[in-house]
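Incident log, structure service

09:12 report received: a user says their structure output differs between two submissions of the same chain.
09:20 pulled the input from the user's history:
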Amino acid sequence: MKTINDDTIKQLISWRTFQTNQHLVANQLKLSDNDAQQELLDQLIEHRFNKYTATELSELITAHDNNLGWAITYCRLDLVSRHYKQLGKRAQMEHAADLEDVSTGIIKLANDNGDTTEISEFKLQQVVSMFPTDKTRLFVDMTLRYGRLETMAVLKLNKKQYQRRLRNATSYVNRHRSKFDLVTSTVRDRQLYVLNSLNELDAIINETREGNIQGWIDNHTKLTNELLSNSTVKYQGTIIRAFNQASRADQYAFIRECISQQTKAQEWINTSNQAIKKAGVSNEA
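09:34 re-ran on a clean worker, output below:
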């Protein structure tokens, strides 16, 4: 079926399930409600409703059929997924800041206490895409965006069902923490800081400007202490206070540790970039 008569369309667009998904499309893709409505209708007619006759479809809408409701929800996910897949193809980036170039903007995530956290739309989609099933992704996306009460209402969950799903989602994050760390800003920003700082030190060493090594240490005292704690440097205090006065053995031990950590940070960022690109081009919202 490629067309729907006007009466059936009126029934459909007045159905709360359709309206909820229409508003989600508008919010997620930054469209007007009218444009979101048309996008959702076109997608449904073309891909989700073509197995029904006009009469069957009208009857299912009138009955608020649950399976048809899920078809509308997954249709909305298809629209959002396609949108972010297109963004992902443009996301050939090396640094976290580049992600904002393909972001559709900043949204505010609210909890039930009214507290909000700002996050880019693109970043949220990356995090949500890490979950294993459409059902869980939908639940997490709605919970983060709209909070518990709205999620319970739209997904028709009672309090016990909602808490069970929340526990399952939280447990998945805890079991796969390293997977989520690859696309979350805090951990990635830390790794970028380490890599960029050690790249700076590497440039100083290659230019053989030993006096500047002390300047680098003075500007990165906390990182230097972390590096020293993992190194074989014997007199660590001398490295911090006066690098040029440290023994050659300790200087070399410190530089070896810096090179080792520089390599590890670069490998981590490479893995993170691949995870981000994979999330960006995922077919699943």
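09:41 both user submissions now match this output. Likely a transient worker issue. Closing.
09:42 reviewer note: Residues 19 and 81 are 19 Å apart (CA to CA). The first strand starts at residue 106 and ends at 110.
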